[in-house]
Amino acid sequence: MKVLIPGALRSYTQAAQVEADGATLDALFEDLDRRYPGLRFRVVDEQGLLRPNMRIFVNGLGVRDLDRALRTDDFVAVVLALSGG
């Protein structure tokens, strides 16, 4: 499936959009980490949870559950949430 990568993580992928496989979001990030070592740790923490500053959209719908099932034709966007004051 197609995965949109935010600018802050493109040093791993060298591309704004990549292809990856996975039956769930968690499996998708495992596959991305195999292809682009270190990327998963920037998105998923040591407890297996999405980091607070990360947002994931599947076909435009915001998702935080890494057990969310995926289809091969889904479009996943990884977005880095901005913060500050």
Strand-helix topology:
Elements: E1 2-4, H1 10-13, E2 17-19, H2 25-35, H3 39-43, E3 54-58, E4 61-63, E5 75-80
Parallel strand pairs: 1-5
Antiparallel strand pairs: 1-2, 3-4, 3-5
Description:
This protein is of the alpha+beta class and 85 residues long. 24% of the residues lie in helices and 24% in strands. Strands 2-1-5-3-4 form a 5-stranded mixed sheet, with no helix packed on it. The model has no long low-confidence stretch (mean pLDDT 95).
- CATH class, named Alpha Beta
Helix count equals 3
Fraction of residues in β-strands: 15-25%
Low-confidence stretches: none
Q: If you average the pLDDT, what whole number results?
A: 95
H/E element order: EHEHHEEE
Query: Shape, please?
Result: globular
List keywords for this structure.
single chain; 85 residues; alpha+beta; Ubiquitin-like (UB roll); five-stranded mixed beta sheet; 5 strands; 24% strand; globular
